[in-house]
UniProtKB/TrEMBL annotation:
CDD domains in the record: ABC_MJ0796_LolCDE_FtsE
Sequence ranges assigned to domain ABC transporter in this UniProt record: 2-220
Record protein name field: Putative ABC transport system ATP-binding protein
Keyword match ATP-binding: yes
Keywords: ATP-binding, Nucleotide-binding, Translocase, Transport
Organism in which the protein naturally occurs: Chitinophaga dinghuensis
Family indicated by similarity: Belongs to the ABC transporter superfamily. Macrolide exporter (TC 3.A.1.122) family.
Pfam families: ABC_tran
Amino acid sequence: MIKLQNIEKVYRTDTIETLALNGINLHVAKGEFLSIMGPSGCGKSTLLNIMGLLDEPSNGQLHIDGHTVTKLSDKELAGFRNKRLGFIFQSYHLINDLNVLDNVELPLLYRKVNAKERRRLATAALEKVGLSNRLRHFPTQLSGGQKQRVAIARAIVGEPEIILADEPTGNLDSAMGNEVMDILIQLNQQDKTTIVMVTHDEQMARKTHRLVRLFDGAQVQ
Ligand code: ADP
Ligand code: ADP
């Protein structure tokens, strides 16, 4: 589903050059739930952002679902990201001025889905994460775990093949973290969504199919 070949990432500024990824080779199978761990600064977010087409590698090739995405134009990349990928972040990235339903409908608005269909799909996604009773609430009125569940509903509303999650339980206590993790496991098992998750939490990582450890931009063997 996702194949990385000799992926390198160098961040350059006028004075500093940082080798963030040093030749990553990784194959994520369709339907797999993979976690990535490693110390701060080892390249986890960079790797996830490259898989999520949010950032470009300096060298190497990235294939997703048989497409060599390193060769696509910016417009094609945006389309690919919008249709096939869902993102979840540690800090939720919800829009505080929009209620729960409107937050979840947002990706569909970008896809020009009509209002009635947006409402139907967003309601269904929120039901899946157990938030049918919070549709008209605003993010500031929700707990951290509820906010992350809204973010998951937003990530899945367009039925992505792949979910990329950057420390999805990082801001949550263990009870709320486990709730979020259970939802991700359910999406993986029932909907067969491929999931790649960065985490600092060994306990969460152990619930996934496979763990890849990074150190200084390379995989620990
Ligand atoms: P992690 O997610 O494992 O904490 P990151 O992928 O964020 O690590 O960062 C990997 C390395 O790349 C770090 O040394 C970091 O300082 C560097 N880095 C990340 N983003 C940038 C950037 N935009 N410009 C320069 N260096 C960066
Ligand atoms: P934090 O550690 O501050 O919680 P996140 O995990 O929320 O960081 O975000 C990781 C990276 O993804 C950041 O570099 C951020 O700029 C970027 N990012 C966050 N949200 C989006 C988004 N909706 N679209 C594109 N990039 C994003």
